[in-house]
Amino acid sequence: MKIIVDAMGGDNAPQCNVRGALHAVKEYGAEVVLVGRGEDILRCLKEDGIDTLPAGVEIAHADQVVEICDNPATAFKEKKDSSLTVGLNLLKNGGGDAFVSAGSTGALLSAATLLVKRVKGIRRAAMAPVVPTGKGGAVLIDCGATAECTPEYLLQFAFMGSYYAEHVMGRPEPRVGLLNIGAEPSKGTDLQREAYQLLKKAGDEGRINFAGNVEAREAVCGEVDVIVTDGYSGNIFLKTMEGTGGFLAKELKAMFKKSLVTKLGACASRTASPTSKSCWTPARWAARRCWGYPNRSSRPTAPRMITPSRTPSGRPRPSPLPGSSRILRKISTICAWSGRARRRSEGLIFQK
After folding, report:
1. What pLDDT is recorded for position 314?
2. Residue 255: helix, strand or coil by DSSP?
3. Crossing angle between the packed helical segments 273-280 and 231-256, to the nearest 10 degrees
4. What is the spatial distance between Cα 216 and Cα 298, in angstroms, rounded to a whole number?
5. Does the model's pTM come out above 0.85?
6. I need a labelling partner for 298 at 20 to 30 A (CA). Which of 98, 188, 280, 326 fits?
7. Which CA distances in Å does 217 have to 129, 224, 240?
């Protein structure tokens, strides 16, 4: 699997992005294309004691950088030689299987929609992290790509989320819930009430396993495998989870430091700490996949989308690696930390 990484996206780029990509190459054996200013990328490698480009790593030079202050709707047009635009064009032309960035979310969504295009029939793309729950995690779709939705958008989100939960997360007949302020069908705004009827009909037809409305507290407990919502509510849900996790971790740390007895208790519970810490840390799970963009098989009429049997260097191209979603999550998790402090979890994956 070849992953294109925006090496210049984020305030701590390119150091964190390059290190994260190299870590994924070493640990998972993925191929990586680092897109950005070549001299800056090579300087980062040299600082880490790497004088030659490691096997499986390529550099695609791009002189410009899309900054957070740039207009999201037009940045990729105005900066055609930016790492964002060059990377997405590589993705579009079959130069990789996924694109990872910790840069401007709005610019990334705009560029992906206009350059890579959406899957035929998908009216809006959606960002969908797997958030931690009491039963191992759930797909939250959407969490910010489309703030204002129609009932039809939510129905499509449900289909995409259900497919991911079943085929990637290994959940047979995943339970799909509509995020709402109550479990009754009459609760919510017109959007939720109309979406409920569409989802119920899809459930009756056997197209999804619709579990009805779900409140936020039940969703966190793991009552459903897919949480369907509009981007506005979903983003608030996600940020609330991040803030709550950080708050609980801080309070727990303060509690353990109160006395000698509590410090001994902290030492005794140290074996469980890594698991709990990974659950509370946003960058471990909040890297957002953006769905709704096509893979190569979705465009049989475009010859440039066919994967060549050999790499540009002449080596046979390997088949996709098992656990590719895990590889993407690992790289995006590390890249996510290169963003601004308040946007640490906004590493985005555009998986073709």
Report:
1. 44
2. helix
3. 150
4. 35
5. no
6. 326
7. 18, 11, 11
What is the end-to-end Cα distance of the chain in Å, rounded? 11
Residue 71: how many other CB atoms lie within 10 Å: 14
One-character DSSP codes across 45-62: HHHTT--SPPTTEEEEE-
What backbone torsions phi and psi does residue 58 show, to the nearest 5 degrees? Answer: -125, 160
> Got the DSSP string for 20-82?
HHHHHHHHH--EEEEEE-HHHHHHHHHHTT--SPPTTEEEEE--B---TTS-TTTHHHH-TTB
DSSP, res 115: I
Check if the beta carbon of residue 219 is closer than 8 Å to that of residue 125. no
H helices of the chain, in order, are: 15-28, 38-47, 75-78, 83-92, 105-111, 151-167, 190-204, 216-221, 231-256, 260-268, 273-280, 282-285, 324-336
Contact 350, 290 (CB under 8 A): yes
Q: How far apart are CA 56 and CA 235, in angstroms?
A: 36
Residue 16, CA atoms < 13 Å, CB-side half-sphere: 22
**Cβ-count burial 13-27 (b if 16+ within 10 Å, e if not):** bbbbbbbbbbebbee
Largest Cα separation within the chain, whole Å, is 69
Angle between helices 231-256 and 260-268 (to 10 degrees): 120
